[in-house]
Amino acid sequence: MPGVVVIGAGPGIGQAVGHRFEREGLPVALIARRRPEAAGAALTLAADSTDELALRAALDQVVAELGTPDVVVYNAAKIAADRIGELSLREQLDAWAVNVGGAITAAGQLAPAMVANGGGSFLITGGMPETKPDYVSLSLGKAGVRALVGLLDQTYGADGLHAATVTVYGAVAPGTAFDPDAIAEQYWALHQQLRADWKQEVHYTGVV
User: Fold this and answer.
1) Measured between alpha carbons, how far is 4 from 168 in angstroms, rounded to an integer?
2) CATH number, domain at 38?
3) Mean pLDDT of residues grouped by 10 in the chain (208 residues)?
4) How far apart are CA 151 and CA 129, in angstroms?
5) Domain extent at residue 50
6) Are 33 and 91 in contact, with CB atoms under 8 Å apart?
7) What string of DSSP letters covers 34-92?
8) What domain count does the chain have?
9) What span, in angstroms and rounded, lies between the C-alpha atoms of 48 and 35?
């Protein structure tokens, strides 16, 4: 049975998404900078999303052990406050590498195989529905993943790849309106959408 790989599988949204898909009987692979300690996951791996070789090797291992995934979830992000001019160019590029670059690496490696298998879902955790001067690098990064979703749709959508973002409007924390388990439901719902109903962006505002 095709499974799901979550990149950026921290203790918030990433692992919650893994648990949600696991409940449906899908094998789950979790990738994070430090190997996740998540009960039930079929495979847990350590790889930094900005380290192209390490991420590619981890994805190769996922495919070798579980097969080409039916779902890829990119949840890695660098969340930090910065205003225009406060970060060096190198620091901006480092933030971009986390927020966007790793997603491009994963898409380039997995999307062709996914469409060869008949399609699937490539889902990215979005945010920053409006740009904020106090979060320049994050605003740019989340704008970047929106653009990437559009490019993935143009490149692979006709062959069955559903690319979308889940745009989260608040700080994620258990027991709040932005509980990770509630947010994880949005990823499952996107994956379940019929092709005629595909959305490229879901806005999670915390209001049910």
Assistant:
1) 21
2) 3.40.50.720
3) 88 94 95 85 92 98 96 96 97 97 98 97 94 95 96 98 96 94 97 96 88
4) 19
5) 4-204
6) no
7) S----TT-SEEEE--TT-HHHHHHHHHHHHHHH-S-SEEEE-------B-TTTS-HHHH
8) 1
9) 10
